[in-house]
Structure formats: C-alpha cells, structure tokens
Here is the input.
Amino acid sequence: MAKPRVGIFDLTSCDGCQVEILNLEDSLLDILGKIDLVNFRIGKEVKEEGPYDVAIVEGSVSKTDEIERIKKIRDQSKILIALGACATHGGVQANINFMDENEVKKAAYGEERLTENYDVKSKPLSHYVDVDFNIRGCPIDKHDFVDILKQLLIGKIPKEKHNPVCMECRYNENVCQFQKKGKCLGPLTHGGCNAVCPSNNIACDGCRGPLEDLNLKAGLRIMKENNVSDKDILNMVRKFTGIDNYYEKIEELLKNGNY
Here is the structure.
C-alpha cells in the first residue's frame, strides 16, 4: 500500500513552526517511516509536484503570487492544514494591515529593499481557500503536530477544542492574571495550549487566535472591568490577527461602549 504523500510548504513567515517540526528529532523519524514526504523546503532538498494527500502550510498570504500559490496547493491536496498563527489568523506580519506600509517595509528591510513586493494585506489561508484543520500557536506545539498527523494517518478526523484559554487556567488552578492586575487576552483566545503562558505567570497574548463562536462583548467586559485600557486591548488584539473585520469590530464596540 502506497504511503500518503505529504507536502510541507511556507508562505510569508519566520519558518519557526517548521523548525519545531525538525525539533521533533526521533519522533519525526518515526513519522517519516509512515509517510512519503515529498516537499519540505527546510528539511529536504528534492521537491515533488502534487497531488498531495496532506498539505501543511505555514505562513500568511502577503503577496499576489502567494494567492495563486495557496490556491494551487489547495487544488492539489485532499487535506489542507494551516500551520501556526500566521497561517491560521495572519500572524505578527498582519500588523502591516494597520500601519503605514512604507514605514513597516523600511524598518524591516531598509531603504534598499523598499520595493519588496508585499502588495496585499496579510491574511490567513482561510481568506482565500478552504482549510480542513488548524494547528495553532506561535510557534506550534510540536506534540500537537505529531498527534494530529497520526490521527490523519489512521483515518481519524481531528477535532479542535473550542474553549477560551481561561477555561484551561481554571483546570490548572492558576491565579487569574486580572487578579494580579495584569493584562491578558485569555477571555478572547482559542484554547488548546493548556494555558502554557499563564501557567508560567505570563499573560496570554492571543497567539492561538480568536474563538470563532466567541461572546466578544462578554470578553471585552471582563477586560474593561479589570481596568485594561482600550488602547492596550487594541494593541494586544492586532498583534497576531489579520482576520477580516475582527480588529475593526472590537474597535467599534470599545468606541461605542457597547460591551
């Protein structure tokens, strides 16, 4: 029986999530024995064209040519997985959506590379194509990657957790960041990380993205009741997310006091 053909690709990103895959070491070798890895830029020199049984894509769509590339990958793949914060909801580079593009390019690349062709707003994969599953985080939890890939290999459809980070804080008996006068995006953020940051006394910064079925007003109300300013909320929200209208919706709710 032929092994599943798996391709790992990257768009605009730092490649940190792919590095986490390499950091699996012996566990990665075990997986490689069960798949035909036909594309993995930072781990394999030879690349093969599709079709692919599973395509795993890191990075956000930030250039016109990346729009065509992700559509081609989608067309050639039975299953498409978004890998990491950039792919699932835009990532840090989505900040360019809210800033002066030339100033951002100048800071990132210097005067001599101002023509770098980042010519569309930075968006998650789902803005352009259907995504079958998300592996969240910045970077991903490498053990999530192993678990999800193993489920797919045995024909099982993975299920995402749909709870806020706050729920996992309660499970871990953490003292709430708000009780310590901190600022935290836990009420608005997709769980599944076992509240790793708050469990280490670091406030959640939203790297796993906003919950799809979020009670946004309730989340904002918790933050405002704990004296988090509108400016701080907006700065935290935009750090990772380029999802259509999410930032703008929060901005409007805060402006109108409608929460």
Remarks:
- The CA atoms of residues 61 and 123 lie 5 Å apart.
- The beta strands are 5-10, 36-40, 52-58, 77-83, 133-135.
